[in-house]
Amino acid sequence: MAPRRTAEIDRLLDEAQGKGTYLSVHDRALKAALERRVGHGLVSPRPSLYARKAYWEGLSRRQRELHILRGQAGRHPNWTFCFASAALLYGLPISFGRLKKCHVLGTGTAHSSLARRHYVRRRGVVLDGVRVTSFEDTIVDCLLTLGFDEGLVIADAALARLGVTRERMAELVLRLGKGRSGLDDALACVAWADARSESGGESMARAVMIRHGFMLPELQVVVGNANCEGESWRCDYLWHLADGTTVAGELDGHEKYVNPEMTKGRDAVAVMSNERMRESQLTLYVDRIMRFSYADIVNEGRLVAKLEKFGIPRVSQGG
Known about the structure:
Elements: H1 3-18, E1 23-24, H2 28-37, E2 42-46, E3 49-52, H3 53-57, H4 61-75, H5 83-89, E4 102-105, E5 115-118, E6 124-127, E7 130-133, H6 135-145, H7 147-162, H8 166-176, H9 183-192, H10 200-211, E8 218-224, E9 232-240, E10 246-252, H11 255-258, H12 260-263, H13 268-282, E11 288-293, H14 294-298, H15 300-309
Parallel strand pairs: 4-5, 10-11
Antiparallel strand pairs: 1-3, 2-3, 6-7, 8-9, 9-10
Helix pairs in contact: 5-6, 6-7, 6-9, 7-9, 7-10, 8-9
């Protein structure tokens, strides 16, 4: 490849990386040159979107999906992202399975191979240079379509972000979702929403507990650190059973060992060591510690079995 073309591609890739997106070009000759480099230092995460392989490998799954949306926004400036795509852009926890296509309002020339159109009356706003539905519209659209488990994830996060009561959020859902299907599920999500939930996994686990009628735990309970005055630990869930037994619930996740925001510069060994120390401290304050994983939530029979094994009672018939 000619040195001039190579220099041009490197410059364009640098610009795209600086903007937190993938490179997208319309020039046919330049696109052909990029296609020849795919597999030789470049990757193409979506048709007509390109990135350096090393850069792409250094991104988290969430970052990769955000890059895709920004890249498509650059290619299709008239698109207004909505539903799951807008939720991701707003930083809401959304399942990656919902992002196989871009979700856009049903106007303009949305190609079926790239995007799913939604024919709803929504106004668009600009978020970091990308057109999206408003935050409130995005929340309600997701609650109307995601079902109870994933909807509770959105409801928990939205309640924390909006800083409102469940009653106010229910009013929002009724106003923006009037006459649309899924309204009962959306209102159920709001009724059970809890702003203290700190991750999508924690919310989905609680959804399983609700549907199966289990006693719900307290969330993010702070306990003291017996070895260091002034420090404290938190457990994801805490149950106080009728016989006086206390059970802590801890959601294990691979992310806590690899996400820089959670590891805070520590390597995986140091993080695991800290987790063991934390668990040993919890045993001074609780009788049992129930650990479970995201796989247990997805295969909910496993989570139900663990809840039963650790003596968490059912308080209702569930859903």
